[in-house]
Amino acid sequence: MKALFEPLAQGTVRFLGERAYFLALPALFGLNPLPFRVGAFLVMFASLGLLASILHRATGSVLLAGLAPLLWLINSSLAPLMVWSSPDCHLLCGLLLLASLWQLQRYMDTGQTRYGVGQWLTFLAAFGTSELPLVYPAVAAAYCLCLHRRIPRSVLALWLGSALFLALQFTLIHPGARTGLYAPHFDAGMMQTFLRHAQRALGPGELFVLGGLGRRTATWLAVGISVGLVLHVWRRARRRDLSALFWLAWFVLLLAPVLPLRDHVVDYYPAVPSIGLGVLAAGAIAEAWRDPSRPLRLATAACVGVYAISSPLAARELAVKYYNDSVMTRCYLDELRRIHDRQPGAPIVVETFARGLFAPPIPDAAARLFGVPGVRVLPPAECAGIHREQGAPVYRFDGRNLVEERE
Question: How far apart, in whole angstroms, are the C-alpha atoms of residue 364 and residue 175?
Fold first, then answer.
């Protein structure tokens, strides 16, 4: 129970998406990454199916239901989740939120209690994966307002779940749990953080971060895509169709929980919110397909084309980046094993940071899991003290090899 529910990692208690997941798979399959990747792909396939089902029931359009999952799938923010096991909890969170929306849609259409109960169950389960479900009641309310023009009391009651989660957080997590990169900042800078996430989610912005585009080019391309999507929402709203407005709200609301983290803007945070971008892009294509206006078709093709080209390119660069990181980690472990086999039982002291070299890619506790005990990753000053007092060699990692420090 302690391993599942003890607050760790900046005060989070993700007992389902991190604790149970990372305890169960290694217990069944050992330290093999394949089951983690199979699990990630199965969760992603289920999410794509749910999204297609939601859109087909809402619109009856096979084109929209087929395009939207594809346009979400190519979003670059999904690349880290598909190649790296650590943030798999975000994939599971996305699946549970889509499952909640799927059941809300059927509850609003049929009034059957079983769908309302099912929504509560998936909503509460999502709190075991991430903090994003805090805003799901607002997402549900936006869906009811935009597509049904009313909010049932059972949907308003979802806020009780979010309130309970916040109460548990404030009572069980000590105030200093979120510090450093994870320290929240509730100020005007949240708008800048939102723009950074939004720009990266659109494709050209991520290419700029990765060095594939210049700042000015990436900014103007991202602005062009944004204007195209907002105009699509506006055109639909003029015809009293607020469904596109809901998917814009999905993107904005699900980014809200990470906006206070101004010092921790990472590439996979927009993964679940970007579902809304995929649906909006697909809706713009479907609208242009039906509209005889040639300028509208050209403008839509240009905006969606930029997104459809830049996002996979950015995703590929991110996948290569994470692959190189995994190769570096393997080299580090191989070096630790080499030193351990040469001097069994001797401590292995590694500097945390060194100018021109790399920080160790995994902490000393993780090294024990791979059969290398006695590793101590310490700041340079402490390493120097251990070397003087015990005569233990000190190593620095250069990305491929552990280099012994020579005085």
Answer: 27
CA dihedral 46, 50, 51, 57 (to 10 degrees): 160
Q: Is position 64 within any domain?
A: yes
- Could you please report the per-residue DSSP string of 184-234? ---STHHHHHHHHHHHHHTSHHHHHHTTSS-HHHHHHHHHHHHHHHHHHHH
Domain housing 372: 343-404
* Tokens of residue 229, six digits: 């999507």
CA 142 – CA 89 distance, rounded (Å): 25
Phi first, then psi, for residue 312 (nearest 5°) are: -65, -35
Q: Find the helix or strand (DSSP H, E) in which 123 lies.
A: helix 113-126
Question: Is 185 a domain residue?
Answer: yes
Residue 329 maps to a domain: no
Report whether 288 contacts 296 (CB < 8 A).
Answer: yes
For residue 125, give both structure tokens: 């389960």
Neighbours of 372 (CB within 10 A): 20
CA distance 320 to 314: 10
pLDDT surpassing 70 at residue 355: no
Is 76 within a domain?
yes
In single-letter form, the type of residue at position 98 comes to: L
Tokens of 92: 């599971």
Residues 239 and 364 in one domain: no
3-state secondary structure of 350: strand
On the question of pLDDT at 49 being above 80, the answer is: yes
pLDDT at 241 over 80: yes
pLDDT at 325 over 60: yes
Split into its structural domains, the chain has a count of: 2
- In this structure, the answer to whether residues 127 and 38 fall within a common structural domain is yes
Which residue reads 């390493």 in tokens?
383
Mean pLDDT, the chain, integer: 85
Same domain, 304 and 347: no
Count other Cβ atoms within 10 Å, centred on residue 263: 13
CA angle 260, 138, 85 (to 5 degrees): 55
Check whether residue 272 and residue 353 sit in a common domain. no
